[in-house]
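[Automated response] Your request has been received and processed.

Submitted sequence:
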Amino acid sequence: MPEPTPINAVLRTLADPTRRAVFERIVDAHEITVADLTRGSGVTQGAISQHLRSLRQAGLVAERPEGRHVYYRAEPQGLAPLVDWMSHYGVFWQDRFTQLRKLLKDIDP
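Generated structure:
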């Protein structure tokens, strides 16, 4: 199987709602352990660990071991492929909004 491109890896990883919720909790917490992520999530620790592995492989989180605990933090540069892809379409929408603004001014001067 061919290696996924960075944008595909990020989109595939964030497509799962549970994984996206785990990522959002990590972003909000700055750093968090698996035990803290599991608490109150309704998901088993094993499942959280699998989601963390996927997030790590996509470059979205990093880990920092400290004693018996491993702390996870978001890696903002992991979202760069998604931001780059979206910025391409930002130009498209900016042009459309400019045309809409002009049309509205023409309709109601």
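Summary generated for your ticket: The chain has one domain: 6-107. Helices lie at 6-15, 17-29, 34-38, 45-57, 80-107.
If you did not submit this request, please reply to this message.
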